[in-house]
Write a structure and sequence with these properties.
The protein has 320 residues and is mainly α. The chain is built from 13 helices and 7 strands. The protein folds into 2 domains: 111 residues, Orthogonal Bundle (DNA polymerase, domain 1), CATH 1.10.150.130; 175 residues, hpI Integrase, Chain A (Orthogonal Bundle). 51% of the residues lie in helices and 8% in strands.
């Protein structure tokens, strides 16, 4: 007997939205479908929606494999969530990953409660795993120089602009790819990008350093030098009639990461910007939060935490 699983379906729209189907093409219960649909309609970034979707899918697959029965809301109890958490621990999943999956399930069942498909959230009361907060990984000055050297040598102005907006302005991937031409404002001695409807639905202005202004000015100038009659789209980094996809940014970073032998992913560039800002403006968490688009100053404070490498170095230097 086959039970429902979750797959990502291409519904020919942007971004791709998830749908639950069974292995034998019989759709899952309307309640589960409606709950997931409602959750995905919330004002989350595409990256967050994808993470939510994959976490829920993993739980559904685990539950059906563990109990050999169809996933339905009425059959899920608190102990199921605890057992799922413990199975992830046995698999050696990172504490942060396990806690994120619990948070995803909490939201999923929260929506089911709101829709009155269940009376109470089975995730309530299930404790997250404790963890010691360390700073996010970022590039040292030497690593950033090695990485950017490969970008400069190849002189791909689009790649320079994409990477520059993350490394020199701290933008998220989703903010970079959805940036429009009219949201870039550059004057002779100043400039900013207007980030509209970013994570949490906020709008903010992000100042641009002179080096980044030069890159963006050159990029926009080259874009305008197109043959007469060629189609134009409003996005700064277009892909046909759509904005560039997030995966394209990831592949750009992977390309120069391999060339420079410096492990880089897009969010690591954003982290690097945050540390560079605090290095030049010690303890200006309020200013950094404004630039990064954080609604909670506690989120920004992670950049004041110690890196694991720093703690290791201090331990090694301790007198025995």
């Amino acid at each position: 007997m086959k039970y429902p699983i979750i797959k990502i379906m291409d519904n020919n729209c942007y971004p791709k939205l998830p749908e639950i189907i069974s292995e034998n093409d019989e759709k899952a219960s309307p309640e589960v479908m409606e709950t997931l649909k409602t959750l995905m309609e919330r004002d989350y970034s595409d990256h967050t929606k994808k993470a939510l979707f994959l976490d829920i899918r993993e739980f559904v697959r685990w539950y059906e494999g563990e109990y050999g029965e169809r996933f339905t809301f009425g059959r899920i109890i608190r102990q199921d969530i605890i057992d799922f958490r413990e199975s992830l621990k046995r698999l050696g999943r990172a504490v942060a990953t396990i806690n994120r999956k619990l948070a995803s399930l909490r939201l999923f069942f929260e929506v089911a409660v709101e829709l009155e498909y269940i009376k109470k959230n089975p995730v309530h009361g299930v404790k997250s795993l404790p963890s010691q907060s360390l700073s996010p990984k970022w590039l040292t000055h030497q690593e950033a120089r090695r990485f950017m050297k490969e970008v400069e040598i190849r002189d791909n102005i689009r790649d320079k602009a994409v990477i520059g907006l993350m490394l020199y302005a701290g933008l998220r991937v989703g903010e970079v790819v959805r940036l429009r031409d009219d949201q870039v404002h550059i004057a002779q001695r100043s400039g900013h990008v207007l980030i509209a409807h970013s994570k949490g639905g906020k709008t903010r202005k992000v100042p641009l350093v002179s080096h980044l202004r030069e890159i963006l000015t050159e990029y926009q100038s080259r874009r305008k030098q197109k043959p007469a009659g060629s189609e134009t789209v409003p996005f700064l980094f277009p892909w046909r009639n759509w904005p560039m996809m997030d995966i394209t940014v990831t592949k750009i970073c992977e390309k120069y990461s391999e060339l420079s032998s410096v492990p880089v992913h897009p969010h690591r560039l954003r982290h690097t910007f945050a540390y560079a800002y605090l290095a030049s403006n010690p303890w200006d968490l309020v200013g950094l939060a404004q630039i990064m688009g954080h609604s909670d100053i506690n989120t920004t404070s992670i950049y004041t935490q110690n890196r694991l490498e720093d703690l290791q170095e201090r331990i090694e230097n301790m007198p025995v």
